[in-house]
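Fold this sequence, please.
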Amino acid sequence: MSWVKFDLLLGRMDSSARLILRKTMKKLYLLFALGALVACTASPQKEKPASVNTPAELFTGLPVFDLQGQYPKKEIILQDIADVRYVVLETGDSSLVGIRTILMTDSLIVTVNKKSDVIFFDKSGKHLHSFNHTGMSGEEYGDVVSGYCIDEKKREIFIYDGLQSRIQVYDYGGAYRRTLKLPQNRMFASSIFEYDENFLFGEDYRLVDSQDGKYPVNKTPYYKISKKNGKLTSIPITVKERIRDGLSYTVGDGAFGYVSLLMSPVARLGSDILIADYSLDTAYVYRDDHLIPLTVRRNHTSENNIPILATVDVMTGRYLLWYTIVKDIDVKNNHVSDPVAYLYDRFTNEYCQVDLVNRDGVSATNVPIFQMRLSANYHVVPENYAIQCYPAEKLIELNGQGKLKGELKEIASKLNDEDNPVLIIVKFKE
């Protein structure tokens, strides 16, 4: 199975008391480093802090995730731990989505397609409007949208134009507001996120994983980005040897290619920023200008000494859903290792190797790239939520094979191959 996305870029680098209690418990949980518990049968250990200079250094004894550990395998029905609903995205000439990052708020679903159209839907999937401002003028963006995020309060959308080292800011209707100029020696790509009312958050991964070792890699790669003028404020976390989820290479004609495993170490989970840098043992939550240790990863390499990448795909009040993959990339044969999902239960302090199964007939975690996995990392969603994209053609195929049931079967029976993907919206139970 080829789970990897291969891109030829041609030289471009591209309600109530319960609610209050739940939020309070979450904050306490993180501030006390997840209760200083250790996964499964491991014993508590004091961990050497990562190279950071924040009050978070005081927190030790974090739960440990052994990337070579033998954890029990478990199949869990998704509907047993979460409420599930489907959203059929309306299909039209100006609302063709494909498979891209989904930004979901309480009222909106926003995405950008391969033509760089910015598309707005309501929460039921009805197409509201789209805009496209591709071009080279001061109020436009290049034809490759590297990343995007939204400010719900100010109703602004930020479009990262990596080729011109700038972020273009528009209102929801597409009216130009301002340009945030960025240094040309930084590359944030899809790793820009809403942080607070004044800043975005970004990760610079310029030259990381490049086969060309002539140029230095940024060792302080995490920044707040001013929404006013694009000024960068470094986050105090230092990474000595950077590693990420891809590989750069050149092809015979001198063009540039990039293999992406879609395993970003950085995500916006609810209102928190996750930093699970693969070169560090500790994964952090960044909140209120503090790095708060979340968990520790051990044994980062396989038996063949190949890096094992592990990032948090979903973080809820109870669960951490980890996605891991051995970074064994065979460019020539278009092949990588299969990913493996693990679920950490904060209540029981246990890990398991998990396959989350949608009761309507589709695995939510063990899926190839064309379906996308259940994630709040690849997508951006409210707290305790996750999204999965089901391409129409795949649902039609599965339905024809008699593998679907329930509401998903009914939806698939009405689709055609050219329809937009169907979204599964998951809200994990308290």
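The longest strand covers residues 290-298. Residues 210 and 248 are 5 Å apart (CA to CA).
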